Amino acid sequence: MSATASFAATHLVPLAAAGDDLDKSKVTPGVLGFIVFAVIGAAVWLLMKSMTKHMKRVSFEEAPEGAAPAPAAASATTAADGAAPAADGKPSA
Asked: Quick one: pLDDT at residue 66?
């Protein structure tokens, strides 16, 4: 059990035993509730920041239909070498 969980458990046990003394309309989440909420908020902020960075890298431009992307540099080197390209588009050595 982690230190935080044992700390929370030691403070919750006396509260559970004294359940009749508490006014149920005045119970609040307390410091632990605030800490959990703050951690979730920070995690969401970091995830949104990361998602924005990754979305900026995405290219949304589509290639025109019917046009196959042919690398010009690979075809020029194979023509100069006289070697036919392999199935993966790279010239065989």
From this structure: 74
Residue (of 70, 74, 67, 65) closest to 92 by Cα position: 74
Q: Which alpha helices (DSSP H) does the chain contain, by range?
A: 3-17, 30-57, 72-81
Phi, psi of 69 (to 5 degrees): -75, 110
> In the prediction, which pLDDT does 59 show?
81
The residue ranking higher by pLDDT, 26 or 53, is 53
Share of the chain above pLDDT 70, in %: 52
- The b-or-e profile of 69-78 (16+ CB within 10 A means b, else e) is eeeeeeeeeb
DSSP 64: P
Q: How far is CA 16 from CA 5, 6, 30, 36, 70, in A?
A: 16, 15, 15, 21, 71
The residues, any chain, with a CB within 8 Å of residue 86's CB and separated by 6 or more, are 92
